[in-house]
Design a protein that fits this description.
alpha+beta; three-stranded antiparallel sheet; 424 residues; elongated; 3 domains; 9 strands; six-stranded mixed sheet; Leucine-rich Repeat Variant
């Protein structure tokens, strides 16, 4: 065979190799992309998903580029292409992790079983969790920090139409229960039973339910001076009587009565973040319209949420509530609506007001005898415990003794709680 024929055959053979390598590269890249799709199913593998996606894409890009570069006259072109593909993978991964890590969840909690009876749903740990409502049939809540941090998690459901007077209800779950569940399954689905106001898992076990007794989200000793660092801009301005230039408080109070659920919700949140300067207007509204469910709900919600977000504001809030207004706020602890009762109890618990232990003793003296009122007494005992520590030490033992003497003999749970309150 002539030499030129041998050279031609050898050249053809060598030209098939790049195509063969390219196909292998594309197949490998596609396999890695398939792995990325699999990893995307779980929030816990977000980092591996991002890395696999970047590497798979870059291998395909490098395989295609290598075939073209072999035909190029540029020296060492294939090596440049492979190096460039590797660098592209690294850059893509760094870009994705830098811009995606802030919003990548460690777990997703889906609440299914929604209907047109529900206007809005929110879940709170230390703050409200990011959520998406999908097709009006479910909410997906995103746990960012790896686990929930407070003693319990709460879900609030706003009704599109009132049930009697009630327009919303709040359900609670223990922190340890939720953390145990999401540690096993990072994408878990629960089911809302609207009529019974509970949320269950797939086996029917109750995960969230409403409560009659108030349980603090965290102890005051750990909340004071270590809570939220956010500041109320209007708080400082209120000292100079300039708050009205930023917020028309009267308009927000009126919005608490609006028929639109979104308008009422936005008004409540606006008043929460407006700061203590809104307290006089809230108290005036409660005094004038205590028969309004929406006003009672709005006032109790705003004060409880304001103090939960920043417990250090308690002295400023308490300083703007008169004695008779404090008594009116205290009446909400015995409200007919369960949600209002718990908001009011939390607000008073966090208030750290020297007037409240004596007011609690007055409530204990009522000698009530049904189940709701035993919960009412228990909630006042929690309020008593949260405010006793701001009383001078010499007076605490006497107030504790008065509280125990004022209780009905059969209020056992309340009595046990008060007996455990330290006085030192």
């Amino acid at each position: 065979m002539p030499d030129h024929d041998i050279k031609e055959i050898g050249t053809k053979h060598r030209r098939r190799e790049p195509l063969h390598s390219t196909l292998i590269g594309i197949v490998v890249g596609c396999c890695i992309l398939a792995l990325a799709v699999f990893l995307a199913q779980s929030p816990r593998t977000h980092g591996m998903f991002t890395l696999s996606l970047c590497v798979g894409f870059s291998i395909i890009l490098g395989a295609l580029g290598t075939e073209a570069s072999i035909k190029s006259s540029i020296p060492h072109a294939p090596a440049y292409v492979v190096g460039g593909a590797g660098a592209t993978a690294i850059l893509l991964f760094l870009f994705a992790t830098h811009h995606g890590s802030a919003i990548s969840p460690s777990a997703i909690i889906t609440i299914s079983g929604l209907s047109d009876k529900i206007a809005h749903m929110s879940m709170r740990d230390s703050g409200e969790m990011f959520s998406i409502r999908e097709k009006s049939i479910r909410y997906r809540f995103y746990v960012i920090s790896g686990q929930v941090n407070k003693d319990y998690v709460e879900i609030t459901v706003e009704r599109s139409k009132p049930r009697g007077e009630s327009e919303q209800f709040t359900m609670f779950s223990d922190r340890d229960d939720i953390n145990r569940i999401i540690s096993k399954d990072a994408d878990v689905t629960f089911f809302l039973d609207y009529d019974n106001e509970i949320i269950t898992d797939k086996n029917g076990n109750i995960i969230f339910e409403t409560r009659d007794k108030f349980m603090p989200m965290m102890r005051l000793s750990s909340a004071i001076n270590s809570g939220s660092n956010w500041q109320f801009v209007s708080t400082a301005l209120a000292q100079e009587h300039e708050a009205d230039e930023i917020l028309n408080i009267d308009d927000q109070i009126k919005s608490l009565l609006d028929d639109d659920t979104t308008t009422r919700r936005l008004a409540r949140e606006t008043l929460v973040y407006a700061g203590p300067n809104v307290i006089p207007a809230l108290m005036n509204a409660l005094n004038a319209q205590s028969d309004s469910y929406r006003i009672r709900l709005g006032v109790s919600y705003v004060i409880s949420r304001m103090l939960r977000e920043n417990p250090n504001l308690a002295p400023m809030v308490a300083g703007q509530i008169k004695d008779e207004e404090l008594a009116n706020l205290g009446d909400l602890v015995g409200d007919n609506d369960k949600t209002i009762r718990l908001y009011a109890a939390e607000a008073l618990y966090l208030l750290r007001d020297k007037r409240l232990p004596s007011l609690a003793i007055e409530k204990f003296s009522a000698r009530m005898n049904n189940d709701m009122n035993y919960n009412y007494l228990y909630n006042w005992a929690v309020i008593f415990s949260g405010n006793l520590e701001v009383i001078e030490k010499d007076s605490r033992a006497g107030l504790k003794r008065q509280a125990l003497e004022a209780l009905p003999q059969n209020a056992n749970a309340t009595r046990e709680l008060i007996e455990t309150i330290p006085i030192n």
